[in-house]
Amino acid sequence: MLPTADELPAVLLDLAVPHEDVNPLVALRRTMAEDPEWRWLLGRCVRGLVRDMGVPDGGVELPLLPAELGEAGRYFPVYVFVAALEHARAYHRGIGIPEEVSRRTLADLGRNMAVHRRREGTGGLLVPYWIRLHFRGEIYQLGRLQFQRTVIRGRAAASLAEAGRPGEADDPCLSIHIPDFSGPLSPTACEESLAAARAFFPRHFPEEGHRVAVCESWLLDPRLRACLSGRSRIVRFQDLFERVAARDEEYDSGTLAFVFGTADIPVAELPRRTSLERAVGDHLRAGGHWYGGVGWLTL
Predict the structure, then answer these.
(1) What is the rounded CA–CA span in Å between residue 10 and residue 25?
(2) Which of 40, 150, 160, 258 is the most buried (most CB within 10 A)?
(3) What is the pLDDT of residues 218-262, one digit of tens each?
(4) Contact yes or no for 66/19 (Cβ under 8 A)
């Protein structure tokens, strides 16, 4: 199921795996391929991952392995995705996904390994659940933004009903995601991504009839609008949506992790290098909280 030790580095680099992770992954490959217990778990996870390929919310979640397993446990999800790679590529080819879209989508594996190292200081994969969506054909990178095939849920459904817009709970929709390490969130790049999505999904998934795109993100917290300039890229990103509402749950730790790379810095010591860092930190120092937000737009 796994590439040979000689083949593995090229596969990892195609998936944008950070260079400092390549040698440790090659060194552990023999353990994953030959140790009976690791090989059994790897095979079981790959079969579960690719089961009902392309069906939203399908497949299985990868197990959370105990910290005592060390480097092998942290890297294990990467081997699952490498072993499932040809299944993902075959699914993309079968429904006519352009090779460039396939490549950039699956390269989110490496991006999220970089996020893991920035936050945790070690090699590994931060949120395996997230990357399984890419390797199951549920999410696609189209320019600056990513779009997930899913259904309308929660606050977005209520907001659509209030506005008299098409779309009810459990109707198909696209969920918009903003990947890290991808340059500025410019209005032009976001508009180009939306235009690409409007053409891409009717072509490749015509039966789903996505009429609405939804985004749930720290970037859509309405409080940011009051703290940042109207020329801010974040404020202009919020302007893409027809309606934005705050989430109900406090999201201080998530906002800190996205803005500062970690949620472990004491609030009093948060850097003030940029207008965003100043806005986020000053709001918390004043006793406020961040909640994130939910926005939607019709397609």
Answers:
(1) 12
(2) 160
(3) 999 999 998 998 889 999 999 999 989 888 889 999 999 999 988
(4) no
